[in-house]
Design brief:
Layout: E1 6-12, E2 17-20, E3 26-39, E4 45-55, H1 56-65, E5 71-84, E6 90-103, H2 107-121
Parallel strand pairs: 4-6
Antiparallel strand pairs: 1-3, 1-5, 2-3, 3-4, 5-6
């Protein structure tokens, strides 16, 4: 039996990047800044930058609902892979392959963090998409819930 699970909580370092494979499968790459649990001799808390990748519906969800500065919890597995860069050098990449990505703050806090990040970068902030409202016909009095 083997166990390969990783759960991290942190903030998006930049907006997620969504790409598609040649067959059309969605893949999103993003990095979370995760605070260390300890402080150094000067009382400063360190930070680790953890690369993550999400596939298919999870990738589309991440790209649609998260931007730089948002807090999230990522649950997945650790993957190490080798590749050759454009200069012919062999490289190793270690990343978390996300099975699930969770909101870790309220919509109001996400919007405030997004606004602050956009102000720092001089971008025009656009709030997150409004939630979809569904009309329910309860004229018969039998609601399905």
């Amino acid at each position: 039996m083997s166990l390969n699970r990783a759960d991290i909580q942190g903030r998006f370092v930049r907006d997620p990047e969504l790409r598609r494979t040649q067959s059309g499968t969605a893949v999103a790459s993003f990095t979370l800044a995760v605070d260390d649990d300890f402080t150094n001799d000067k009382g400063e808390r360190g930070c680790s930058f953890i690369p993550c990748v999400a596939w298919k519906q999870t990738a589309e969800f991440v790209q649609k609902y998260f931007i730089k500065g948002n807090m999230a919890i990522v649950s997945g597995r650790i993957q190490t892979r080798q590749y050759t860069d454009k200069d012919g050098n062999k490289r190793t990449a270690t990343e978390i392959v996300a099975d699930r990505v969770y909101f870790c703050e309220s919509k109001k806090d996400r919007d405030e963090a997004s606004y602050a990040a956009s102000e720092r970068e001089g971008k025009n902030y656009q709030p997150a998409r409004a939630p979809v409202q569904v009309e329910v016909d309860d004229s018969e009095g039998d609601l399905p819930f």
